[in-house]
TrEMBL record:
<comment type="similarity">
    <text>Belongs to the methylglyoxal synthase family.</text>
</comment>
<protein>
    <recommendedName>
        <fullName>Methylglyoxal synthase</fullName>
        <ecNumber>4.2.3.3</ecNumber>
    </recommendedName>
</protein>
<keyword id="KW-0456">Lyase</keyword>
<feature type="domain" description="MGS-like">
    <location>
        <begin position="1"/>
        <end position="138"/>
    </location>
</feature>
<dbReference type="InterPro" id="IPR011607">
    <property type="entry name" value="MGS-like_dom"/>
</dbReference>
<dbReference type="InterPro" id="IPR036914">
    <property type="entry name" value="MGS-like_dom_sf"/>
</dbReference>
<dbReference type="InterPro" id="IPR004363">
    <property type="entry name" value="Methylgl_synth"/>
</dbReference>
<dbReference type="GO" id="GO:0008929">
    <property type="term" value="F:methylglyoxal synthase activity"/>
</dbReference>
<feature type="binding site">
    <location>
        <position position="87"/>
    </location>
    <ligand>
        <name>substrate</name>
    </ligand>
</feature>
<feature type="active site" description="Proton donor/acceptor">
    <location>
        <position position="60"/>
    </location>
</feature>
<dbReference type="Pfam" id="PF02142">
    <property type="entry name" value="MGS"/>
</dbReference>
<feature type="binding site">
    <location>
        <position position="12"/>
    </location>
    <ligand>
        <name>substrate</name>
    </ligand>
</feature>
<dbReference type="InterPro" id="IPR018148">
    <property type="entry name" value="Methylglyoxal_synth_AS"/>
</dbReference>
<feature type="binding site">
    <location>
        <begin position="54"/>
        <end position="55"/>
    </location>
    <ligand>
        <name>substrate</name>
    </ligand>
</feature>
<comment type="function">
    <text>Catalyzes the formation of methylglyoxal from dihydroxyacetone phosphate.</text>
</comment>
<feature type="binding site">
    <location>
        <begin position="34"/>
        <end position="37"/>
    </location>
    <ligand>
        <name>substrate</name>
    </ligand>
</feature>
<feature type="binding site">
    <location>
        <position position="8"/>
    </location>
    <ligand>
        <name>substrate</name>
    </ligand>
</feature>
Length: 138
């Protein structure tokens, strides 16, 4: 599965700790991230992370494009609900695209943990059927 990891600054430590705690599960999947989040995860784990641009520089939009092209199976986006972000429209657009394309998205650590356990249990297997029938234009 392709998993996107994104965290706002106040949530980055939490996401890094989450990545450390569940490194064994993450290591069996392809990991993508916005720039700074990906850097932090790579510094603290052995995970190989495909990094996009930093969120405010367009990274959220790049991940949104992956979602629109059915190339993301799970999005873990630890948002900071207490701090205004300069790229708020990009954040809303990313989450909206998850809803448009029925991509499971966790926006806090409690739901992220449930999602990962579901992934481990095989609850995301339905995503493979979508990959099977997707358009060859990629
Ligand atoms: O701003 C972000 C998501 O909206 C995250 O971007 P960074 O991982 O580059 O800090």
């Amino acid at each position: 599965m392709n998993i996107a990891l994104i965290a706002h600054d106040n949530k980055k430590d939490m996401l890094v700790n989450f990545a450390i705690a569940y490194e064994q599960i993450f290591s069996r999947h392809a990991i993508f991230a916005t720039g700074t989040t990906g850097k932090r995860v790579m510094e603290s784990t052995h995970l190989k992370v495909h990094r996009f641009l930093s969120g405010p520089m367009g990274g959220d939009q790049q991940i949104g494009a992956e979602i629109a092209n059915n190339r993301m199976d799970l999005v873990i986006f630890l948002r900071d609900p207490m701090t205004a972000q300069p790229h708020e429209p990009d954040i809303q657009a990313l989450i909206r695209l998850c809803d448009v394309h029925l991509i499971p998205v966790a926006t806090n650590i409690a739901s992220a943990e449930i999602m990962l356990k579901a992934l481990e249990r095989g609850d995301f297997r339905w995503r493979q059927y979508l990959h099977k029938y997707e358009s060859p234009v990629r």
